[in-house]
Amino acid sequence: MKIEERRVHVELGDRSYDIVIGLELLDRLGDLAKEVGIPTTSSCLVVTDANVAGAGHLEKALASLQKAGYKASEAVIPPGEESKSLSQASVLYDKAFEAGLDRRSAIFAIGGGVVGDLAGFIAATYMRGIAFVQVPTTVLAHDSSVGGKVAVNHPKGKNVIGAFHQPKLVVYDISTLGTLPAREIRSGVAEVIKHGLIWDADFFTWMEASIEKVCSLDPEILADLLARSCSVKAAVVEKDEKEDNLRAILNFGHTLGHAIESLSSYGTYTHGEAIAIGMVFAAELSLQYGRIDRDTVERIRNLFIRTGLPTEIPSDLDPVELLNLMRQDKKATGGKLTFVLMSAIGHVDVVKDADEATVLELLRRLGRNEQ
Ligand SMILES: NC(=O)c1ccc[n+]([C@@H]2O[C@H](COP(=O)([O-])OP(=O)(O)OC[C@H]3O[C@@H](n4cnc5c(N)ncnc54)[C@H](O)[C@@H]3O)[C@@H](O)[C@H]2O)c1
Ligand SMILES: O=C(O)C(=O)C[C@@H](O)[C@H](O)[C@H](O)COP(=O)(O)O
Ligand SMILES: [Zn+2]
């Protein structure tokens, strides 16, 4: 099967790059890297996880890089959020030295958000920063591969040790999504829905009409969907690369979502599942503030339910502990609770001093599954 390749440009001056979306792009990875000027004269390192390697995607990527003249070494990390750690970063620095990477070398991140965030963090810091190429292999990674946020986790919180380091190129081979478990497809769709909710009401309405087709991975529909979702992300990042203000809207649903991930030790919910719960909570809080009506909240909840995502706050998570974690969120300053709240579908604002009593009451009520 053939589809027309889509390209989304991210305009950031001398840090600009393209997101190339299409089928069987791994076979062209080496040539695409050469086109953006990554030299073949220095060694490169391909980072992936064991599931992605086991699905055959690493082998393809290595073959393509070698065919294009790159001397490529590999580093395969254990799958899962636990790998986004300083100890795993240390293992990768050792690999980078062993592979002889120099300041003109590049790192290729082939995988989901975990691989992309971790490998990007190594690229941002090894020898004070070298080039990297994002090769997303999950639906969710349409978000993580774009925008340059790279990080590892710390016991104090998610993504709290990190940097802004833009990739040179994003190669999104949607053929790789064929081996992705169904749960991970749904998880990634949560960030797509987020992009509609924060920026593009028509996109959200289109998702309501097409959600079943989206989850069935029809390549044409998928390519359109991912290009449109990446375009929202690119538009926001172009306006505010380092999250001085506007970029915080990309954190819609993440104040509670990150707290849920952290309190459940990153083991129970995927990132997409946690932020789906967080987005429904943010919609409910927006309703409490009189910013949107009940029908809008239910429209949002229904789309998540139809996607197969959770929407209820887990009753085993203590609301007070969730609140404490939300106070430490990166968006919060002076310990004040910060939420991204809606004023309509497609429109959100950052609210910097949400009332703690209101938030706690809502956490308690929704944790008992009352509406
Ligand atoms: N940097 C950002 O802007 C940003 C944005 C969103 C999310 N994130 C981060 O991304 C991470 C979540 O990313 P994710 O959902 O992609 O998780 P992930 O990287 O853990 O991938 C999900 C699972 O799918 C497996 N997998 C990946 N590709 C596969 C394929 N093609 N075939 C078979 N299995 C495959 C992985 O091994 C893993 O088990 C979180 O750490 C989150 O914080 C970062
Ligand atoms: O790119 C951004 O900015 C985002 O907020 C995108 C989020 O989907 C993503 O989960 C990001 O990693 C969260 O950033 P953080 O700064 O809250 O850790
Ligand atoms: Zn996210």
TrEMBL record:
Zn(2+) binds at residues 191, 254, 271. Binds 1 divalent metal cation per subunit. Can use either Co(2+) or Zn(2+). NAD(+) binds at residues 113-117, 137-138, 149, 158, 176-179. It is found in: Cytoplasm. It holds the Pfam family DHQS_C. Its main location: cytoplasm. GO terms for molecular function: 3-dehydroquinate synthase activity. Residues 76-186 form the 3-dehydroquinate synthase N-terminal domain. Keywords: Amino-acid biosynthesis, Aromatic amino acid biosynthesis, Cobalt, Cytoplasm, Lyase, Metal-binding, NAD, Nucleotide-binding, Zinc. This is 3-dehydroquinate synthase. It comes from Effusibacillus consociatus.
